[in-house]
Amino acid sequence: MENHKNSTQLQGTEKLIMEAAKKIFGRKGLDGARMQEIADEAGINKALVHYYFRSKDKLFEAVINETFLSFFPKVMSLMSNPSISLFHKIERFVDLYITLIQENPHIPGFMAQELSRGGADRVLDMFKDSGIKPEVFFKQIEQEIKTGTIIPVNPVHLIVNMISMCIFPFLARPLISGFLIRDRIDYDEFLEERKKELPKFIINSIKKK
Amino acid sequence: MENHKNSTQLQGTEKLIMEAAKKIFGRKGLDGARMQEIADEAGINKALVHYYFRSKDKLFEAVINETFLSFFPKVMSLMSNPSISLFHKIERFVDLYITLIQENPHIPGFMAQELSRGGADRVLDMFKDSGIKPEVFFKQIEQEIKTGTIIPVNPVHLIVNMISMCIFPFLARPLISGFLIRDRIDYDEFLEERKKELPKFIINSIKKK
DNA sequence: GTCTATACGGTGATAGAC
DNA sequence: GTCTATCACCGTATAGAC
After folding, report:
1. What is the CATH number of domain B12-63?
2. Spatial separation of the C-alpha atoms in residues A122 and A130, rounded to whole Å
3. What is the pLDDT of residues B61-102, one digit of tens each?
4. B176 close to A161: Cβ distance less than 8 angstroms
5. Could you say which of B31, B116, B124 has the minimum Cβ distance to residue A109?
6. Which fold has domain A71-206?
7. Where do the H-state alpha helices sit in A104-186?
8. pTM for this structure?
9. Could A164 and B169 be called an inter-chain contact, meaning their C-beta atoms sit closer than 8 Å?
10. Which residues in chain A are contacts of B199 at CB distance < 8 A?
């Protein structure tokens, strides 16, 4: 895999374009986005976008790479750190995950799109390239099961559950907001509450009583 | 809201188009899908699609309506049935939800797309039109909290958790499959296992010990 | 590097024969 | 109802001046 600059290294116009592209692609997808729209968002001319990234596909590719590279390593290095206890790890996972998405709101849109586009292979590749092994987390779970701290669970279901509950609320944000209005609750409030409640929910579900 | 025929009432060519459109729109989205592609999938001519549905947008609209109408009522009538106990309701919810999606694999794609397109209002409207009140479910939770059967939980988080864990695995299917290969497990196996494990997981997480 | 103007292809939609 | 042929438009991409 080639080397990729990440956005903090990019400067000036190129960075403007990247940020604009994240926003527009994240909202409308590869097909729905217009190069004109991205140019407008970046406050520059349409031709310049092509000057920097050659084609729409190339630009999309670049955005995908940067998005996942800014995300996976952080989460994964947490998960594969063997010196953090399982429960503590769950707490930090939820907080990190939700916080990262709050700071990069385009991520869920990309996840969904890239996955439905059949881009799973790419994601799996990045995974391997990151040099990080999820086995650490799996082993940790098996260990706690033996110790009797938690009840027997399939680690795959557990991790799927965790990720689902962190990401999906962002995709369903407009829907949830609709419900929250009834209670006069703000969506951001809801998320902050969630950072506290979700770890409890998860730990409770596997803890031995 | 106007009356809509559902797919079981449609016949012949019109039904062929609807089914093809579900498939293609679900995979590629409104913008990514091509009328030609839909026509091919239906085994008919492109002009005929326009003959039946006037425009691409109208067709998409029709597919969205039918999709949600074939889904919401079933789930919602379950949730708002006050004579089913909370735990039993959770079990049936998971099974019904996952089974419905297995039978209509295009649903998750639509959910994600329609939501990211800002179609939440439409969904909320359908909700209201269905004449069903989620309050029943909420009240039931509050009741069980008072009784002491379950620990105090925010009902909104609980329902969001339930829906997240049912839907998201379908969006992430290609990713999960990648992981499962390692264990020589089939995705359908995984789903069947999930129908059994998920209710336990949810009930465990709120049950008082 | 940044702009304006334009070429080019693809796609939604319609007309009209059968 | 179903087809073939065609139009009109829009969006990507490039050429070329500054």
Report:
1. 1.10.10.60
2. 12
3. 999 999 988 888 899 899 999 999 999 999 999 999 999 999
4. no
5. B116
6. Tetracycline Repressor; domain 2 (1.10.357)
7. 107-116, 120-129, 135-147, 155-171, 173-181
8. 0.94
9. yes
10. none
